[in-house]
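ESCALATION

Customer reports they have been waiting on this structure for their group meeting. Please prioritize. Original submission:
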Amino acid sequence: MLPERKLKILFVGEQEQTFGQLRALLSQFDPPGYEVSATVSIEQALFEMRRAAHDLYVVNEHLDLLRQASSDGCQAPLILLTSRNDPDFEQEVMQLGAADILHKARIDAASMSHSIRFALERGHRQRVEASLQDSEALYHSLVQSLPVCVLRKDLSGKFIFANQAYCEFTGRTLEEILGKTDFDISPPEVAEKFQTDDHTVVATGRQLRNIEENQTDGRTLWVEVIKTRCMTRGGGSSAHRRSSGTSPNGSWLSPLCSGPKKRPKPRTGRKANFWQT
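Update from on-call: job pushed to the front of the queue and completed.
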């Protein structure tokens, strides 16, 4: 993805001739939308890369720079210029994270333009993927730390996620929960009600709030349930039993607030508050 402003390119290398060749190629682009600067210092180049000071880095032969950048976890868009014709060298360069390799003897304006565009689009994809991974990590950190049980189920009713609170609440390990349904955990008549409610929420799109009796593994629980249909990015729907929130992959998300809670009138059994969207 190309930015609308002029692209800032940093050339890293000691050969003025190669830097001049790069500037000459960029000057042929229409329109000329590039600002090019240069450094001979690997340390300076790493500093610039860490603070994302440029849109693209064109590196002249400096494999040590790629190794250090890779060790630092830097994912800056980078093109390596080389005179070497060595498959092992090229494989190492790509494994270290370079977007492309250009052989100096064969560079022209078309190949440079293509390489720049590819490097920038690849860098954009990496940033989007990193952002999604960060978001997913934050989500999992949140649901693992909340004082509620969080479940996610697919539309066939199988559990595909459960947080530690729910594992402790049911006395099961995660492996014993994943792939199971309500019928594997609750009595048949209770499981049937859960799934009927889930299907109703998915079909109508209306939120369901209720206080219900839950018999699980021989224990009687009074639970407060909130059920809400979740929409995927593509517009598809999903539902969850005892859940609250949205699910990006069309599955059911279920937070259950565990913990005893008294009712106005004494009832037999244990009380838990289940929060669900």
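Sent to customer with the following note: Residues 7-135 form a domain with the Rossmann fold fold (CATH 3.40.50.2300).
Escalation resolved.
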